[in-house]
Amino acid sequence: MNATLQLIEHLELTESFACFRPVAEVSLEEAIELVDEAIRYCRDNNINGLMVDARKLTGFPSPSVTDRFWFASKWAETSNGKVVLAMIQRPEMVMPDKIGVTFAMNRGLLVDVFLDDADAVRWLRATCR
Question: Does domain 3-127 have CATH number 1.10.287.110?
């Protein structure tokens, strides 16, 4: 799996943020790398908002708390405080307490997770003003 090719194929720019909608059966590590590449692209191109629709990334179980800490830290570091992230995910992938969001926010990444596009877009537009 080539993260750059996935990025080019599934990234769309709107007037106020980027949308990344990857479709692939991947490992958790590959999924994390895809999202990290999208965050890096936005950071490097001065795009301050990113919506990632990860509902069609399959091939791995719901991440453990340790996994969530790892990718939240990684994405926060990559963002460097310059990219706001709205993540759309399948319900079985979201922990009720959104611990991954807490981990990321504690490391400087402004992020939230949603179950549908409308809520994610609304939050991202309000947050990226």
Answer: no
